[in-house]
Amino acid sequence: MLLAKASTGESVGEILGVLAAMLSSALGGTSIGATRYLVGSIDPLAIGSFRFGIGFVLLLPLTLLRGDRWPERGDWATAAALGILFFALFPILFNASLIFTTAARGALALSTLPLLSLVIGAALGAEALTWRKSIGVVIATCGVALALLSDLTTAPSGAWRGDLLMMAAALCMALYGIWSRPLIRRSGPIAFTTMSMAAGAVCLILLSYVHGSFSPVAGFGTPQWLAALYLGAFGAALTFYLWAFALERTTPTRVAISVTVNPITASLVGAWLLNEPLRWNLAAGIVAVFAGIWIAMTSGRTEPASAPASGQARGQAGIVP
Fold it and tell me: Where exactly are the structural domains of the chain?
């Protein structure tokens, strides 16, 4: 009876984690539009500075009011390093990629994240590699390719540079998802995200200052400021709180596979705001993405290796305990 209750509680936690990750990725899809808008006015360093600087300012009072448990002193260096990896290097690569490639191609390149998380997680012993997870990742990624089929044919010259930069960004995200999960569980999702985001934001702001990236801000109008505020409030604070919330409750691969929702959301927003046509391939892609997520999520019901995998991960150099 107790085992059944524990199993049910774990399943509910898994579902909440996956739903939070999907909402996070959906918000990330809307952030691509704001990033594409700002990339014509300021460079990737300044965009990241605004996004995560504002995000940190919004998350800090929330963390203090909630009285959440901050990462332990022994975890500070790792939290800061992960923050620089995810909230500094990732946005630089992400924003720079959109200079060279289209949003559609960039979204597809970012959708390699679940595959990278699956392979790296298995290699580090942080997560068991199963057929259902693998099949779910492949189906969801194919769904993204199908949804973006018509948009991928109109690529600018040299778009491959942006594609490679976006795949490098996906690698940063995969490593963060795997290495941060145990630290998030030892503290709390908001507190850990706040601390790591602060490290990344400080790094980006210093680089932006040295590089002179803030000079064009003097010519900002209302649209640019609204885009920057949206990225900070929704594209950073809310998006990455939900991401951390998800990592606390489910595996890195199940969280990562939700990124396939990102380009689907971007396409739907484009259809709603820009009157872009909704084609059959978008509908088919949506079905494939959600089918892939469902397959990967339900694999947990037959995996008895969750605890041993976690125990094995504790031997990974103090990063994945």
Answer: 21-313
